[in-house]
Amino acid sequence: EGPESFPPLRNEAAVRVLRGRMKGIQGHCNSCYMDAALFSLFSCTSVLDSMLFMPFPLCDRNVQGILRDEIVSPLRRTGFVRASSVMHLREQLTDKGQCSSFTSAEKDPEEFLNLIMQQVLGIEPLLKLQSGGQKEQECYCYQIFMDKQEDLVVPDVQQLVERSFLSSDLKLVEIPSCFIIQMPRFGKEYKMFSKIIPSLELDITDLLLDSPRECCLCGDVATLECS
Q1: 82: Cβ–Cβ under 8 A, 6 or more apart, which residues?
Q2: CATH number of residue 87's parent domain
Q3: With contact defined as beta carbons under 8 Å apart, do 87 and 29 qualify?
Q4: pLDDT tens, position by position, for the chain (227 residues)?
Q5: What does pTM read for this prediction?
Q6: Which CB contacts under 8 angstroms, 24+ apart, belong to 129-134?
Q7: Which PANTHER family match (predicted)?
């Protein structure tokens, strides 16, 4: 008999299970980078559930079991994950990685995702990007980098992704199966935006390499792109 699985939370069920005190993933000892990433990846979507069940070639079944049984299942079942469960995962990742501070220091979410997806589970990269006609690069998530923009006070995710791609001259080589986006820096010292509005859908038409688009003047298929 295989491990028990719980579907991601949707609509009213998500509100009922996840709202209120003692809900979500309990923070402890600089774990916020991992708590936020895990909550985003698994609470209300199943797009990465292969991470929990698939026997990938390089897969560490112990880490996969902790992730599935001690974190994702309780989160979807009761809406709460205790800090000790996340610490169990952090201890295992410290053993697997070249980095000894996963249990204590504050990390970048990208560092965590790269370690668990590439080195521990052996998943193929989720994104293929190309910058200015250069060789395509593969990655697991995309971090929004941009200069401070005075006209954006309370931006939405769509605006941030489009402007970030434009400023870095980036295109998606293909439609990604999963598009993990890390928002701009938000730390103790510096906050680029006080609030960001989630875009419930993301239009990537203008971000795709060689995708047919219509001319904004005549409506026919465009042959040139003006940034």
Answers
A1: 26, 74
A2: 3.90.70.10
A3: yes
A4: 556 778 999 999 999 999 999 999 999 999 999 999 999 999 999 999 999 998 877 788 889 999 999 999 999 999 999 999 999 999 998 877 666 678 888 888 999 999 999 988 889 999 999 998 889 999 999 999 888 777 888 999 999 999 999 999 999 999 999 999 999 876 666 778 888 999 999 999 989 998 888 888 898 998 888 77
A5: 0.86
A6: 129/170, 129/171, 129/172, 129/173, 130/170, 130/171, 130/173, 130/209, 131/168, 131/169, 131/170, 131/171, 132/169
A7: 40S RIBOSOMAL PROTEIN S3A
CA dist., res. 90 & res. 67, Å (int): 10
Q: Backbone phi, then psi, for 188, in 5-degree steps?
A: -65, -40
* Cross-strand partners of 197: 156
**2: in domain:** no
Number of domains making up the chain: 2
Quick one: 27 and 57 in the same domain?
A: yes
